[in-house]
Amino acid sequence: MIRIPILLGLIAGLSVATVVELASAYPRPARVSSRPEVDFTPTAVRMFTAANGDLYWYLVYDVVNMTGQDRTWAPAMTLFTDRGELRRDGDGVSRSVHRAIMEHVGDPLLEPKVAIIGTLRQGVGHARRGMAIWPAGDRGVNELRIFVEGISPETAAVEHPVTGEQITLRKNLYLHYLIPGDASTRGDRPIAIHPAYAGEEHWVLR
Which of 55, 99, 111, 159 can pair with 115 through a Cys bridge, CB separation 3.0 to 4.6 Å? Predict the structure, then answer.
């Protein structure tokens, strides 16, 4: 089941057996990329409770460009839960909630999403700190899977397993978190990486 993350969100609704069979035929990203990648360092996933009681997941990260040339930083971070939810960062998140979480974090280096998208200059001195936010819908969630697109320029063209269309897969960093107990009672405590993550592929094409 290690390769299931490759197909999440692409073939929803297929049986597990079919997913496993298709995953085995899908390309894997190169272990050592032939194209320069930016350095991405995530912190812990945490939960934020808005003034109206709504819950949100958020992830603060650092990104550094050591590729040798300026790059465009425009990440896309997709969240999957073990309850079947699929959310793209920022969707369903109001500006007021974004501001509230930034104030809650209280880090002067943290940039809002609208500000961090753009040119990522070279060197440690130009490192940036950003944040991804997703609404927390189902409060019975126990696992979070996050895919980070934009770190690597690596792609692969494949045939869609359902429609037969040619599609482009992009290299994503895959993160997997475990939430023991009731997620809604955690407060702002950090959420740990899933114990199974060490045996999973950390880079996938999707």
Answer: 111
Instruction: Give the bridge partners for 49, in sequence order.
Output: 55
Residue 116's closest CA among 38, 63, 67, 164?
A: 63
HEC string for 168-199? EEEEEEEEEEECCCCHHHCCCCCEEECHHHHH
Q: Which of 5-9, 88-92, 147-151 has the lowest mean pLDDT?
A: 5-9
E strand spans, the chain: 39-49, 55-64, 71-73, 76-81, 86-88, 118-120, 128-135, 143-149, 155-159, 166-178, 192-193, 203-205
Enumerate residues 6+ apart whose C-beta is below 8 A from 11: 18, 19, 22, 161, 162
What is the Cα–Cα distance from 51 to 49, expressed in whole angstroms?
7
Cα–Cα distances in angstroms (integers) from residue 96 to residues 56, 101, 165, in the given order: 13, 9, 40
Residue type at position 7 = L
Q: Which amino acid is at 199?
A: G
- 50-104 pLDDT, tens digit each: 999 999 999 999 999 999 999 999 999 999 999 999 999 999 999 999 999 999 9
